[in-house]
Amino acid sequence: MTAKSDFMAAEEIKAILNGRDKPEQERIVRWVNESLGLVAPANRPVASNPSAPIPAAPHDPSTTASVGVGRPVDIKSFIAEKKPKSDVQFAAVAAYFYSYNANQAERKESITAKDLQEAGRQARGVGFKKPIATLSNGLKLGYFN
């Protein structure tokens, strides 16, 4: 039996929570976070302008190992490890990489169309036709805050 990708697991959780009231969703997610010993993310507003940089999820640096400890340092290796199945998933993985795994000097709080284009070139050798559309779709699908 092969392990499900991070995105497939997230989609299953999303499907389970879909249709429930927001307070109930928040309570369930809080219980899961607590039961797994995870730090709950802080609330951040959703960006309303798709051309603005997409903010990455909040991060507590004390809960993440340093880049050199069992983690790929370059984006190409990181993307290959995560195996995104769509352009939107690729964008989410790239945003995560830039937020948490990139070298300290390259880290970003948000990802722009230019950043996504560069990530595409570095990781798969080709950029995006419309990177802003990919980011906008990711925002609509709930991959970004």
What does this structure look like?
It contains 6 helices and 2 strands; from the N terminus they run H-H-E-H-H-E-H-H. It is mainly α and 145 residues long. Strands 1-2 form a two-stranded antiparallel sheet.
In short:
By secondary structure, this protein is mainly alpha-helical.
On the 0 to 100 scale, the average pLDDT is 78
Decide which structural class fits the backbone: mainly alpha
Contiguous runs where pLDDT drops below 50 for at least 5 residues: 43-50, 57-68
Terminal-residue CA separation:
33 Å
Radius of gyration: 16 Å
Number of strands: 2
Main sheet overview: 2 strands, antiparallel
Q: What is the helix/strand order?
A: HHEHHEHH
Number of helices: 6
Percent range for β-strand residues: under 5%
What overall geometry do the principal axes of the alpha carbons give?
A: globular
Number of domains: 2
Kindly report the spatial arrangement of strands forming the biggest sheet: 1-2
Estimate the helix proportion, in percent. Answer: 40-55%
Structure characteristics:
2 domains, 6 helices, two-stranded antiparallel ribbon, mainly alpha, 145 residues, globular, 3% strand
Which secondary structure elements does this structure contain, and how are they paired or packed?
Blueprint: H1 6-17, H2 22-36, E1 54-55, H3 75-82, H4 87-101, E2 110-111, H5 113-124, H6 131-140
Antiparallel strand pairs: 1-2
Helix pairs in contact: 3-4, 3-5, 4-6, 5-6
